[in-house]
TrEMBL record:
Binding site for ATP: Y14, E26, E74, E83, R84, H85, K92, D93
Protein name: Diacylglycerol kinase family protein
Source species of the chain: Bacteroides cellulosilyticus
Keyword Membrane: yes
Residues of the active site: E67
């Protein structure tokens, strides 16, 4: 298959459309975005190191990506199982659990990075 720059740019457009569809509509994503803004502001305020920025950016990326995957799974479940079904509920809960694992890990990393600047 021939590589097409036009097709590639169009794919980025679809991905951006997917992100925009969630922003402001998904309560959990809004929470993660507000937290992201606070963490970035704190990073500049405390003048964290280059390595600390890399870790923070990685954490932010992982949590937001997990939340987007979770939203996609929720929508897919609603599409294939509009009626209540125990497995549909389990799928949603497991996906939400994956986000929680990422968010808790990111919060612990945030504490490890920022605590020394506060003491
Ligand atoms: N199709 C379903 N079958 C069984 N349980 C479900 C289903 N959809 C959601 N649930 C359960 O409800 C929880 C909340 O799901 P979700 O956030 O999608 O809200 P909802 O119950 O579908 O209602 P709403 O979309 O109006 O908020 C899920 O984590 C799951 O435990």
């Amino acid at each position: 298959m021939k590589y097409s720059l036009k097709k590639q740019i169009r794919s980025f457009g679809y991905a951006w459309k997917g992100i925009r569809q969630c922003v402001g509509k998904e309560q959990n994503l809004s929470f993660h975005l507000i937290t992201t803004a606070v963490v970035i502001a704190a990073g500049f305020f405390f003048g964290i190191t280059r390595t600390e920025w890399i870790v923070i950016i990685l954490c932010i990326g992982v949590v937001i990506a997990a939340e987007l995957f979770n939203t996609a799974i929720e929508k897919l479940v609603d599409l294939v199982s509009p009626e209540r079904h125990p497995i549909a509920g389990q799928v949603k809960d497991i996906a939400a659990g994956a986000v929680l694992v990422c968010a808790v890990a990111a919060a612990i990393i945030g504490i490890i990075i920022f605590l020394p600047y506060l003491s």
